[in-house]
Write a structure and sequence with these properties.
single chain, about 70 residues, alpha+beta, 3-stranded mixed beta sheet, 3 strands
């Protein structure tokens, strides 16, 4: 199966962009450009199976501030 974006010569990434509660963004591939436009696959870290450490940290901070 060929990637249409690759075949068209479009600048893109095959990884999934992960948007963390803390505001940090990372990619599941060794991607140096974390622009959302380059990533057709995006998810929040809360959607990661098994959870993400920053969600727990964010929840703890929120509980302390309340």
């Amino acid at each position: 199966m060929d990637c249409r974006s690759c075949a068209s010569g479009l600048d893109h990434c095959h990884g999934t962009l992960v948007l963390h509660e803390s505001g940090v963004v990372d990619c599941t591939e060794a991607c140096s450009d974390l622009d959302q436009v380059r990533h057709s696959l995006r998810m929040t870290c809360a959607e990661i199976e098994g959870g993400c450490r920053c969600v727990a940290e964010f929840t703890e901070e929120f509980a302390r501030a309340s």
